Amino acid sequence: MHTHRTVAPPFASRRDFLTRSWNGLGSLALTGLAAQEARSDGELSNPLASQSPHIPRRAKHCIFLFMQGGVSQVDSFEYKPLLNKLHGKPLNRIPNLSGELQGRLTFPHSVVGSPFKFKQHGECGHHFSELFPHLREHSDRLAFIHGIKTDNQNHGPSTLHVTTGSQFPGSPSVGSWMTYGLGTGNQDMPGYVVIQDPRGAPMNGAAVWANGYLPSAYQGTLLRPTGTPILNLASPRGLSRPQQREELDLLGFLNRRHLRERRDATDLEARINAYELAFRMQARAPGVVDLAGEPAHIHRLYGLDNPSTAAFGRQCLLARRMVEHGVRYTMLIHGVQNNAYSWDDHGDVRGRMIRHSKEVDQPVSALLADLDQRGLLEETLVVWASEMGRTPFVNGGLGSRPGREHNSWALVMWMAGGNVRGGARVGATDEFGLRAAEEQIPVRDVHATILNLMGLDDEQLRYLHSGRLRQLTDIGGSVLDGIIN
Q1: Does residue 110 share a domain with residue 5?
Q2: Taking Cα atoms as reference points, which of 455, 467, 485, 465 lies closest to residue 178?
Q3: Which of 4, 9, 5 is nearest to 262 (CA)?
């Protein structure tokens, strides 16, 4: 079991012993475990050292594609022809609904049929709307999860729920848990990289990729879209590499001496490690993010020659390069807050979905194809997610350009690569695409499945915080075995 990596001194004073005793036998046991891992002479542990997985799995890297705003499942991956028959009419009473969704249905509303044609693709027969002509070519590589339930109908809490396992701020993100459990394969690059939409940040900003109560070493590192890829990465002018090394050695000596007397100072330890990582990254990172050396056909494959696809195409190409350079977890974010650039389509779902899907369809397809042709898809888990789905209706009058409301009962996600069973699907939504037709799938089950596909057992991946062993899934999740080979 993973325990707290920040440790207490190997020999506690009597006062310390009595203080810990008030917290019960569990704290005494933890003290013993911590003592076994204690540092000696102020030597630093490497929090990102590569760790052995709990379960044999092929995937060594994860790329998490997050579509900010709430992708409409009934206009993308779920074919619901009944909606077109009921277009403009209200839904009949739906039993056993609660919360905001129930409230929306008590007000005047109109069913919105999808304006897009659907067709089945691949041997598996997954449905794709006409908005995804490139992605549908990978149908037999994708495993879909339908009818996922998040715990909140609002963007902020729901975004946190999908990306951190909790709708409340302060919990570690999925990438933080993954790097905590597995470390990373390249000590010259961050273990966890975030590439957000160049037009702006997602809901909650950096909380989406934060380390929460895990040590600071496990937070995501944001790559900037232009200029120096990581803020303050470039060396000061006039300072040579040997001079910088000498300064860093002196700083490290002073910090380690300071740390010997403060062995529970996790922020200080993380800062020392960060200095060293930054020094190594100054030589490595600029070359990793420089796409000029990529051949012209790769630029065309990802759509870098097209203004509509260039931005997300660059994000996807960078994600492939992160995998090649051993980065454990890469998060790509498309969409900004809940504004015109996000998938929050309360109005004009037709026009906005055309624009959103055009920006991502070719780049995501290119990423899957490029990883596969390089033999990397087998060792990379690719996840498509959003924070919620959309309703099959719009509140108020239908109007000439209807949209869709929030729906936390019908999120659709898909996965590919690694041990994912391509062509599989689990879960289903009702004939309206409103909620699960079968048993609702909670987000914690999806998170447990993602960890499992990366070789991590959710029940073993724990961290002591505020007297409680915490985990990504909170109360534990059930792995969705139907999508795993």
Answers
A1: no
A2: 455
A3: 9
Q: Which residues contact 352 (CB under 8 A, 6 or more apart)?
A: 343, 345, 403
**Within 13 Å, how many C-alpha atoms sit on residue 96's CB side?**
6
Residues 426 and 357 in one domain: yes
Place of tokens 């910088």: 244
Q: What is the pLDDT of residues 53-100, one digit of tens each?
A: 999 999 999 999 999 999 999 999 999 999 999 999 999 888 888 888
DSSP string, 138-170: GGGG-EEEEEEE-S-SSHHHHHHHHHHS-SSTT
Q: Is 331 left (phi over 0), alpha (psi -120 to 50) or beta?
A: beta
In 3D space, the residue among 178, 439, 432, 198 whose CA is nearest the CA of residue 314 turns out to be 198
Residue 208 and residue 167 share a domain: yes
pTM of the model: 0.85
Residue 128 and residue 29 share a domain: no
Which amino acid is present at 320?
A: R
Tell whether 128 and 141 lie within a shared domain: yes
Q: Give residue 189's domain range.
A: 43-483
State whether 214 and 314 are in the same domain: yes
Do 118 and 28 fall within a single domain? no
